UniProtKB/TrEMBL annotation:
Keyword hit for Amino-acid biosynthesis: no
Gene Ontology MF, one: sequence-specific DNA binding
Record bears the keyword Secreted: no
Keyword annotations from UniProtKB, A to Z: DNA-binding, Transcription, Transcription regulation
The protein, known as: Transcriptional regulator, AraC family
InterPro entries found in the cross-reference section: Class_I_gatase-like (IPR029062), DJ-1/PfpI (IPR002818), Homeodomain-like_sf (IPR009057), HTH_AraC (IPR018060), HTH_AraC-typ_CS (IPR018062), INH-QAR (IPR052158), Tscrpt_reg_AraC-type_HTH (IPR020449)
Domain of life the protein comes from: Bacteria
Organism: Rhizobium mesoamericanum STM3625
Residue ranges occupied by any HTH araC/xylS-type domain in the UniProt entry: 223-321
């Protein structure tokens, strides 16, 4: 049955959008309807021109309409929330008319959300300047370089001024769970989790990907040092500065890294910077010198030398042969 409080969610999809992020968000709404026994949410899908859109997995979705048709909807049928769904090659999905529509939607007071790489399109539309946001970890380095006015972080979910962004994948389900809990309470959101065999509602502040979490139950001082390195990547803080941050001498910190990770702090930091550079090379068309500077290297020649020694291939050659997913690259060709 229909509910007098039914909310309309419009999903805007672009070529190469991530199906997992898209369906995770939609399924959460469907399950909320099932748990409530009423149509708490309804949704429709739009594309820029109303034509079918192929996801990154190769499946094609036929939308319900176009942006122009969406703008022509009567007030009673307009969206309560617009969810921008993107994925690979998001820079190719930039569209002036879509950006204007997003600004128009925002100015009308509609809640806006960007999932997976949707934040890129929101930032391009000028909606994230000075606002906290997040994006899938693969795209974060490029995003920060492209949109320095946005306050981008690594949390699963961010909200600032009624604009929501999330990392995508299963985090899209988390995002909708928070909306469901706000509307219908904890009991309903937990019931949705049970239906989806989702073990818990993750807090928005949980980091989507962090070496601190990956490294696990190690010395807290070492974890603090690694987190400082991650946050100070572009500045390439000195090893002495890292040691001062955790209130150890350089020699004490070196012994700690040797014992816990069987490497030196300088080597560990170099590999962190090279990994970020790899993400930027595979996820953007940035000039190699710009990638080098963004990752704390003083020259492109020094960067290229370190990169070739670590990955066995130059940055330019990796870009030419590599897939768009940096994670797939690291699994296939890790040294």
């Amino acid at each position: 049955m229909s509910s007098p409080f039914t909310k309309t969610v419009v999903f805007y999809i672009v070529p190469d959008f991530t199906m997992l992020a898209f369906t995770s968000a939609m399924e959460a709404l469907r399950l909320a309807n099932a748990v409530q026994g009423a149509q708490a949410y309804r949704w429709r899908v739009v594309s820029g021109d109303g034509l079918p859109v192929k996801a990154s997995c190769g499946l094609t979705i036929t939308p319900d309409g176009s942006i122009a048709a969406e703008k022509a909807k009567p007030n009673a049928d307009r969206a309560h929330m617009v969810v921008v769904c993107a994925g690979w090659h998001v820079e190719r999905a930039v569209d002036r008319s879509a950006a204007a529509w997003l600004r128009w939607t925002r100015n009308a007071g509609t809640t806006i959300a960007g999932i997976c790489t949707g934040a890129y399109l929101l930032a391009d539309a000028g909606l994230l300047a000075g606002k906290r946001c997040t994006i899938h970890w693969e795209n974060l380095p490029v995003f920060k370089e492209k949109f320095p006015a946005a306050i981008a972080g690594t949390n699963l979910i961010e909200c600032d001024s009624n604009i929501y962004t999330c990392a995508g994948g299963a985090a899209s389900f988390d995002l909708m769970l928070h909306f469901i809990e706000h509307e219908f309470g904890r009991r309903t959101s937990l019931a949705v989790c049970e239906q989806a065999i989702f073990d818990r509602i993750r807090p928005p502040s949980e980091r989507q990907r962090s070496l601190v979490r990956t490294l696990g139950n190690l010395n807290p001082l070492l974890l603090a040092a690694v987190e400082f390195m991650e946050d100070a990547m572009a500045e390439h803080a000195s090893i002495e500065a890292v040691a001062r941050h955790i209130k150890l001498s350089r020699r004490q910190m070196e012994r700690m890294f040797a014992k816990e990770l069987a490497t030196s702090p300088s080597r560990f930091y170099l590999e962190l910077r090279l990994d970020r550079a790899r993400l930027m090379i595979l996820q953007s068309g940035m000039a190699i010198i710009d990638v080098a500077v963004a990752c704390g290297f003083v020259s492109s020649s020094h960067f290229t030398k370190c990169y070739r020694e670590h990955y066995g291939v130059s940055p330019n050659k990796m870009r030419l042969k590599g897939p768009r997913s940096a994670q797939l690259q690291s699994l296939a060709d890790a040294p």
